Amino acid sequence: MVIVAIPCYNEEVAIGSVVLKSLQHADRVVVIDDGSRDRTAEVARMAGAEVLVHEKNQGKGAGIRHAFEYAAKVGADILVLIDGDGQHNPDEIPRLIEPIINGEADMVNGSRFLVKGGHNVPKYRRVGQEVLTIATTAGGSSGITDSQNGFRAFHKNTFGAFTFQSKGMAIESEMLMDAARANLRIKEVQIDVRYDVAGSTYNPVAHGMSVLASIIKLISQKRPLLFFCLPGAIAMVIGMGLLFLVLTIFNDTHSFAIGYTMVGMLGIIIGTFAVFTGLTLSSIQSVKTSN
After folding, report:
1. Residue 160 CA: distances (Å) to CA of 6, 157, 184, 288
2. 190 near 115, Cβ under 8 Å?
3. Are 31 and 41 contacting, i.e. CB atoms less than 8 angstroms apart?
């Protein structure tokens, strides 16, 4: 059974057509209305979707978590996530689920950038997407070209792999990090995205910075050794190098380089603290995982 889930917020304009098109490629369509203040839920029901309503807006992460819970409850074999703003084309659902049906992947990520030149993404969005994808890769997800795409498909065996810590738009990156951590087979397929429909009402720069900050926070939680220990080790090496330079200067000139000494000591102190923080958090994480 294939279920299409559509987390949405104030999407009454586009949700009807997204539901109708999705029904052509799925056994069920469920809309998670995340506290919309318009007629999103009503229009979705009229179009033939089952609707799960959040009384208050909780963020996209909460909507996706609810979608997975619903899919597991009804015994779905494949869950497809698609945005409700009309930017994704539901007619591409068969292309998205094909690798799962053929046993080639556990999770399929739609990508605007898999084919070079095969997208019409505005340049400012492309730069922002690259930055967020690089940050996501640093968090442990490798080989992904489009980390912020909300058009994805999942085999039922993946449902328990995701933690859903993020409430906002960083959920896209978090899911890729969790998938990599669970050693899921991830495949990307080229998809199209429309930019001639009403999209996000957020300022793209402010929104991108907010998502980036959330991704960095996720990295600190999920990969503390990378986030704390690596920069800490670098700071310690720089600090020791500066102190060695101080000794060299003193031997040559008999002058004490106070500035280098202060910076070198600060680097060693901060680096040591960061390394121990990373090791401590990693140990706590290991204990939680084992339990």
Report:
1. 19, 7, 11, 16
2. yes
3. yes
Dist. CA 232–CA 270, nearest whole Å: 7
Residue 22's CB is within 10 A of a number of other CB atoms, namely: 28
The C-alpha atoms of residue 195 and residue 87 are separated, in whole angstroms, by: 7
Q: Which residue has the tokens 């087979």?
A: 185
pLDDT truncated to tens, each residue of the chain (291 aa)? Answer: 999 999 999 999 999 999 999 999 999 999 999 999 999 999 999 999 999 999 999 989 999 999 999 999 999 999 999 999 988 999 999 999 999 999 999 999 998 887 766 556 666 566 666 666 666 666 556 678 887 888 999 999 999 899 888 777 778 888 888 888 888 999 999 988 877 665 555 555 665 666 666 667 666 766 776 677 878 889 999 989 988 888 888 788 878 888 888 988 999 999 898 888 877 877 776 655 555
- With CA atoms as reference, report the closest residue to 33 among 5, 3, 53, 59: 53
Q: Which residues contact 99 (CB under 8 A, 6 or more apart)?
A: 105, 108, 187, 189
Q: Model pTM greater than 0.70?
A: yes
CA–CA distance, 269 with 249 (Å, rounded to integer): 22
Taking the alpha carbons at both ends of the chain, their separation in whole angstroms is 32
Residue 73: partners with Cβ closer than 8 Å, 6 or more residues away: none
User: Which residues are 190's β-sheet partners?
Assistant: 111
Q: Kindly report the length of the chain.
A: 291
Edge to edge, the sheet with strand 186-190 lists 50-54, 28-34, 2-8, 78-81, 152-155, 107-111, 186-190
Q: If 0-12 CB within 10 Å is exposed, 13-18 middle and 19+ buried, where does residue 142 land?
A: exposed
CA-angle at 106, arms to 52 and 185, nearest 5°: 135
